[in-house]
Each structure stands twice: as C-alpha cells, then as structure tokens.
Amino acid sequence: MYIAKELRKKSIAEYLLYMWQMEDLIRAYGCHLPLIQREYIAKFANYTDEQKEEETDWFGNLIRMMNEEGCREQGHLQINKVILQDMVDLHQRLLQSGKFPYYNAQYYKVLPFIVELRSRNKRGGAPTEEESEIETCMDALYGKMMLQLQHKEITTATQAALREITTFVGMLSDYYVKDRDEGLKFDDDMEL
Fold first, then answer.
1. What is d(CA 184, CA 12) in angstroms, rounded to the nearest whole number?
2. DSSP state, residue 187
C-alpha cells in the first residue's frame, strides 16, 4: 500500500506495473490473506504493527475485488484497467496534438517494436481482442521484470527494444503526472 501510494505520485507506469505484480503475488498465495499476512507482510521489518495492519487491510481489499471481478486466476482489476485506459487516452491526445513532437518521435521509434511484439503474441495464441499499443508496451515491461526476477537471460536485441519502450512509456508516464497535477495544454484547449 505504501509503495503503491508513492509510485502513484511519481510514475503511473511504475505504479501500474507494481499493481500487476501485486495481483500476481496474491494469486501466488492462492488469494489467501492469512498466508500473505504471515509469509509476506510479516517480513516488512521496518513497518510498525499499525502499518502491517493497514497493509493487511489493503491486501484484503485487493483480494475481495479480485474475487468480485472474477480475476482470481488471470486478468487485471478494474481499477488497474481504468488507469491503463487513462494512459491510452492521454497517448492518443498527445499524438493528435502538434505540441509534443518529442513524444511523437519516440512513439514512431518504438512503433516497429510494438508491431513485432503484437506479431509474436498472435503467433503464440494470444486472445483475439485488440489490445492497445500502450498495453503491449506495458506487457513487455512487465515481462522484462518477470524475466529479471527469474534471473533469465534477455537477448541484446530485446534489451535494446526494451530500452526504447522504457523511454517511451516513461515519457507518457511523465506527461500523465504533469496532466494530473498541472494540466497539459493541447491544441484544442481554449485559452481563458
């Protein structure tokens, strides 16, 4: 909970990746709160008992939502889907505006990697529903994180692609925070 709050303030992309990781952590513990409390939360040595209780409540709420939303086995919570959609919407606004040329340039630099990732996913029997380009990028970053946690090797070409995707998603995340905190001016915004 505390990590999620801090990440949400500074980087919406890191926050979303963290939340996806928490969904998977909950699944790994069989959506069983006492097990999460005993084997995960109890190991937070620098947390007070009150903070551990708050963390337990937070995980309990996530488990409840996962049960209610039917994503115990797979998928993402609605709260995370909404954030992803907000990122997609901002991405579209940034591309349509003439005021963000560096973002547009980075997007076109990453686009071939997105096309390649989507091509691989289709060959791998991925669901037929069309995922957004932003979701493709976020999936790639999450996949990288999982490979690193498993100490698996990542090819040089994949590392290069992931660096570009990271830069692109980082730009989008920075614009998201700026838009949330200050508001971005787009071409269609009227001056008052």
1. 16
2. T
Tell whether the torsion through CA atoms of 63, 56, 58 and 47 is positive or negative. negative
∠ CA 101-105-109, rounded to 5°:
170
Instruction: Let me know: does 174 contact 90? Beta carbons within 8 Å.
Output: no
- pLDDT tens-digit series, residues 25-68: 999 999 999 999 999 999 998 999 999 999 999 999 999 999 99
How does pLDDT run across 138-152, given as a tens digit for each residue? 999 999 999 988 999
Instruction: Compute CA 4 distance to the chain's CA centroid, rounded to the nearest angstrom.
Output: 11
**Site of tokens 């660096």:** 163
List, for residues 105-121, the tens digit of each pLDDT value.
Answer: 999 999 999 999 888 87
Question: How is residue 147 written in tokens?
Answer: 């490979």
Tokens of 158: 């994949």
Look-up of token digits 């614009």 = 175
Taking the C-alpha atoms of residue 75 and residue 70, their distance in angstroms, rounded to an integer, is: 8
CB 187 within 8 A of CB 98: yes
CA distances from 175 to 67, 119, 179, 182 (A): 33, 28, 6, 10
Cβ(1)–Cβ(54) below 8 Å: yes
